[in-house]
Amino acid sequence: MEDSLSALPDYDNPPVNEVVFGIQFNKLENLKAPHTGILWEKLGRKKYPECKEMPPLPHIIESFDRIPSQSPPITIEEFHHPPLPRLFFINVIQNHLIQVQQNRFHQNWRKLKSDDKYPRYVQLYPKFIKSWELFNSFVSEVNIGTLEPNQYELTYVNHIPRGEGWVNLSDVENVFPEFQCKIDDRFLPEPENISWRRIYRLPNDSGRLHVSLRLV
Fold first, then answer.
1. What is the mean pLDDT of the chain?
2. What interhelical angle do 121-141 and 35-43 show, nearest 10?
3. Which CATH number is correct for 13-57+79-159, 3.60.90, 3.30.9, 3.40.720, 1.25.10?
């Protein structure tokens, strides 16, 4: 893994604000609320002393037989009982968390202070794999099914404050060349806000890259 990463650009202080590793799998119908306490102990309640309930994320599969939508599809599901929430297990200093729902397992690193250093992929990925293995072991021990992954995700959130490479929206292309905002000799002025997205199919249909840009 390190050999393949050595050819990529490396930055002293990248603007990474959050990284999310994720695995989506076929729904574990037998994962119920009583199991979550066992899972919390398995992951380590001392390491992750805080637990929060959040709405579940949608189950989305990348399909290469059609043009992808710019927004998640609208789905209608019939429930005979309330869906199990997505659980956040959060560490002591709040910068690492594990997300679990019936068909997803995610692990986040997030920047909380301006002087927090991004620990890099080569450090975060092994931690994610270790957590995933603990979850796999839990699923086996409580006998609630088999984990069958159907999609893998890696998300980077970069925060570039105004004044660091850009001031006006027309400057954004200086830090993000894919985006262009030409306003010369036009009736319309510079936009007040932007929401921009592109989707790229990776070689050999190995996945998709989703890129979005917005002003916050």
1. 89
2. 140
3. 3.60.90
